Amino acid sequence: MDWLAHPRGAVLIALRILALGLSAMAGLGAFVLFLQFGQADGLQILDVVRAVLILISTLWLAWGAVQALIGLMTLPRAPRLEAGAPIKGATVVLVPVYNEDPVSTFSRVAAMDASLAATGESARIHFAILSDTRNEEIAAREALVFAHLVDERDGLGRFFYRRRINNIGKKAGNIEDFMTRSGAAYDYALILDADSLMEGETILQMIRRIEAEPTLGLLQTLPRVIRARSRFARAMQFSASFFSPVFARGLAMLQGRTGPFWGHNAIVRTRAFAESCGLPALRGTPPFGGHVMSHDYVEAALLARKGWLVRLDDDLEGSFEEGPENIVDHAKRDRRWCQGNLQHARIIGAPGLRGWSRFVFAQGIMAYIAPLFWLGFLAASVAAPLFVPPPDYFPEPYWPFPYFPPSEASKAIGLAIGIFGLLLVPKLLIAARAALLGHARDFGGSATAFASTVAELAFSSLTAPVLLAYATRSVFQVVLGRDGGWPTNNRGDGQLGLIEGFIASWWIVAIGASGLVLTYFLAPGLLFWLLPVGLPMLAAPWLISWSSKPTQSHLMRVPSETSLPPVVALHDRILTRWDNAFPAPDNARTEPASATGRSPAHA
């Protein structure tokens, strides 16, 4: 692999030092600037506290911006492989399911198998559907539809179905059970989610890459979100297709041998995975004890600890997934990720882990506690006027002229511009680069891509306070010992009415209203600055409902909408045919589905 794609040794160390150094400089700059602002009316202890909170928050924002800048400076490069090299090892595609609609899920398997068959290299690739379904009616449909799948695809001896009696360990336990019982029959295992879809040529490319690198234990792709219908889902889909590849490029440059694993759309070397990735239950009870919830990060760290290479190849196309259609479903899935990431506080000190693996755990924890620092800063800012002594305009006795301290408002404005710049500039630069390199053509042209970028920035700014409120509540729930379990996601329409939006967010409205009222009485000068946070919270029910509705806007279109990927078109045809052959019960399409894995657009 070219060093520009995955730097090593001294180059990697220098790159990491540069990234951390730039982030630290941004954080320290914000810290100093805020202290200078606070000195205008006399430096108080609360000013120092706020400056520290700004330092931590800005450092975190800067780290994301630096990853984007690194991604902007390089392009993904494919490893040099022998063209058309035959597949040597045996591969199994693992599809864990849990109360899924079997027609939708198994038709994806049929589409991937048909895509593989078109390459002429499908003989040594098997599919295993690993069911943890607890609903007996769905289980009966799984058996029926699986028999149809085997018959239609002539899959006897290549397709397998197993339903566990006890679903200990959820998805991680499901995979472990297969590895323990049947893993030795295969050299490689491609791990998917129930909503995953991959081109046959992409699967072959992944197998060829892992065969070409004997030390490669896990190869992760960058999944693209498809089939989004609602305003919320299409914004996430555009972000995953337009922005995430650049951020992932930066991540790939910084990862070295300890890359990410997002739990799906990745191939593993079965021997390496079986030897390295056993996950015993943590001592104690959930949320911090019990089975490891965010198992993917831990499995990547365990592979790296054993000396295996874990790599993100962000140049691979043809890897797809689906996402939640509304804010509420997104928040439910994020609640599980929050508990899993905070649980890593029990694992970060495990013996033998590589330093970067520990850093990845710290990043995952910080991703969820960062809102607390912003919340603390806002609360301290509202309370600050209560602790400021009245101004002394005559500090010198008998001096006849009043002294007016110099205004430091320019520093506060500069600080605000800098912080917003860390959020906005990387995305604007991505749009500019897409126009220069011609990538914007796939997103409707340079003008449309730029307009879509602005629309996404506006949309994410509106929904950010609501999403941060859900994330903050999740952190408090975990810290207070509330186990969120392994909640299921809903696939399907996802539309929510205004009443449903209010039921899901009344507490956000109450917090937003209380915050604005307190600000008005305690720190009226801050009211204007807090409106971009408070008003979306007041409008949370409407935002949730409005963003869950479908849209046909020409903005935020992605390539998969204008030109269906071949495997997606295949799946559409098969699903239409199977839907007619297997009429679903009235509640089948709204049956809760298994929680999907994470991806950069969501993490």
Layout of SSEs?
Elements: H1 9-38, H2 45-73, E1 91-97, H3 102-117, E2 125-131, H4 136-152, E3 159-163, H5 170-182, E4 188-191, E5 197-198, H6 200-212, E6 216-220, E7 224-225, H7 231-255, E8 266-269, H8 270-276, H9 295-305, E9 309-312, E10 319-321, H10 327-343, H11 355-383, H12 409-437, H13 446-479, H14 498-522, H15 527-538, H16 540-547, H17 559-562, H18 566-581
Parallel strand pairs: 1-2, 1-4, 2-3, 6-9, 7-10
Antiparallel strand pairs: 4-8, 5-10, 6-8
Structural class: alpha/beta
Cα shape? globular
Q: Specify the CATH architecture of the domain at 91-324.
A: Alpha-Beta Complex
Briefly note the CATH topology name of the domain at 91-324: Spore Coat Polysaccharide Biosynthesis Protein SpsA, Chain A
CATH class of the domain at 91-324: Alpha Beta
Name the helicity range. Answer: 55-70%
Order of helices and strands: HHEHEHEHEEHEEHEHHEEHHHHHHHHH
What is the C-alpha radius of gyration, as a whole number of Å? Answer: 26 Å
> Counting H and I runs of at least 4 residues, what is the number of helices?
18
Amino- and carboxy-terminal Cα gap: 27 Å
| CATH-defined superfamily of the domain at 91-324 | Spore Coat Polysaccharide Biosynthesis Protein SpsA, Chain A
Q: The biggest beta sheet, please?
A: 7 strands, mixed
Tell me, rounded to a whole number, the average pLDDT: 89
Strand order of the largest sheet: 3-2-1-4-8-6-9
